[in-house]
Amino acid sequence: MALVLYFHQSLKLTILMYTKRGIMWFRQDLRLHDNEALTEALQYTDEVIPIYVFDERQFREQTTNFGFRKTGAYRAKFIIESVADLRNSLRERGCDLIVRVGHPEEEVFQLARQAKSSWVFCNRERTPDEVYVQDELEKRLWSVGQEIRYSRGKMLYYTADLPFPITHTPDTFSQFKKEVERYVPVREPLPKPAVMPDITVRLEAGEIPGMEDLGYEQSGEQDRRAAIQHRGGESAGLQHLYDYVWEDREIEHYCQMSDGVAGEGYSTKFSAWLAQGCLSPKLIYHHLKSYGEQGGNPKAVEGVFHALLWRDYHRFMAKKYQERVFAKGGVVDQADPRWRNDEHLLQKWIDGKTGIPFIDANMREIKATGYMSNRGRQNVASFLVHDLQVNWQMGAEYFESVLVDYDPASNWGNWNSIAGVGSDPREEKRFNIFSQSTRYDAKGDFIREWLPELADLPTEKLHQPDMLSSSDEEALNGRLSSDYAEAMASTGKWRK
Ligand SMILES: Cc1cc2nc3c(=O)[nH]c(=O)nc-3n(C[C@H](O)[C@H](O)[C@H](O)COP(=O)(O)OP(=O)(O)OC[C@H]3O[C@@H](n4cnc5c(N)ncnc54)[C@H](O)[C@@H]3O)c2cc1C
Questions:
Q1: Could you give the CA distance from residue 258 to residue 165 in angstroms, rounded to a whole number?
Q2: Residue 478 class from Cβ within 10 Å (0-12 exposed, 13-18 middle, 19+ buried)?
Q3: Residue at 359 is within a domain
Q4: What is the pTM of this model?
Q5: From the CB of 418, is ligand 1 less than 6 Å away?
Q6: Domain end point (choices 257, 291, 321)
């Protein structure tokens, strides 16, 4: 504990008192509202030092097993913006955010020693990379008599409120939903602190790195066709939530989970802010509740709540099954022997050159923006695993790299279920790409937007250009651009 000396001249009195000092280590909880670790730090200490460390391994040092950069440019930009926003908010409250680039277990440890704090407060993470870092930090802190205090900041539901221990979490989403909805109320979100105590210890504030500093050549700007232009940070997230529910009332149209593929309005687009913790799911829930109480569309309330429950469910599954979620055989340990590590097929899929327009349009969207609808994600994942029979881990790693909203539990959990190796094997999702394409992009606007080389095709031919007859091609008079890839799977098989 740090020692502070107060000298009161009138009484000629010297009082010795201890300042209880704690470090608030921000991770994927880049917000002041409903931040349990921050609230605890403020309750238990006199002085809180907020810290964020850009983990070099995630940005420039390490790649995934199949060689993708761990954090792609869209997400890197989003995180940089989120950290800058957090720093502004803390400065407005009379404090600052100490920023470092390095390995958090080392940087936070050094700062804790320098500041002579007693505790490091943080919201606990549950997936391997993040657990490794927090465990390493914990060990180092013990060596100097300090400790980590964990809070739970990620979910709608608190583990402690559940009617079952984590190891007994129901394996099927429907059972999980039934049990939590019946027994567990969602807690009220915690308020933002109005002011932060002064930091009395001298610490270098540190610069927030730019994209180049983190080794990116790209700017991370999204293509103008992006469903939403993401801007990182709690302020932008709260503004988006407010606009979505109250100002623009786009929520009115959210009935079924993520059925659209084009434009901004078909789903909430909360995911990137949720993934970095700029928005709390409990706060979203409480807005939904008041919207419902004020006569809002009950189907929309139920739909968004249902989506948020999926997020919790995947997180609970990741806690329950840990490394198994990332293994080729998944939670059930049953890898299909036909799954190959085929780099060539994978690359065509990544580049949107499979010759299947609905797949290619979605894949070009994610490459150019870091975002894709849930409908799109399900279809492209199904196509890679079930039609091309490529090892699903390759697809999951590409998503890990490119997604602006990457969340380990949600990404790997969804890939598990598409591949049929998740906790609910009945859930295997094998999609008929042709019927999905004609159903969810009936007029072909989405395909035309992302595949300009097909723009001239009449709608009825757009979903399966590989099935054009020679008379069709003649009638088109060369308007089907020869640039478009040959189909890697015959779309005819989906029409049988
Ligand atoms: C193969 C695959 C990979 C995915 N990877 C991710 C990922 O890395 N990060 C991520 O946040 N979502 C992931 N999802 C889930 C889903 O596609 C996105 O959450 C959703 O498209 C984000 O858009 P939105 O915020 O408008 O969603 P909305 O439909 O508006 O849903 C609101 C919120 O609920 C949560 N949610 C909705 N659907 C799901 C779901 N199926 N699983 C988990 N959470 C859900 C998200 O936090 C989302 O922001 C993946 C889905 C698939 C099929």
A1: 30
A2: exposed
A3: yes
A4: 0.94
A5: yes
A6: 321
Q: How far apart are CA 111 and CA 52, in angstroms?
A: 11
Mutate which of 243, 256, 414, 428 for ligand 1 pocket (most atoms within 8 A of beta carbon): 414
Report CA(371)–ligand 1 centroid distance (Å).
Answer: 10
429 pLDDT above the threshold of 90: no
Is-contact 486 424, C-beta < 8 A? no
Is position 202 within any domain? no
In total, how many domains does the chain have? 3
* Same domain flag for 491 and 347: yes
CATH number of the domain encompassing residue 460: 1.10.579.10
What does the pLDDT look like over 111-161, one tens digit per residue? 999 999 999 999 988 888 889 999 999 999 999 999 999 998 789 998 888
| Residues 313 and 373 both lie in one domain | no
CA of 90 to the centre of ligand 1 (A): 30
Residue 140 domain flag: yes
Rounded-to-integer distance, Cα 122 and Cα 204, Å: 21
| Residue to mutate, 304, 393, 405, 429, ligand 1, most ligand atoms under 8 Å from C-beta | 405
For residues 394 and 471, membership in a common domain is answered with yes
Encoding tokens for residue 51?
A: 């810290």
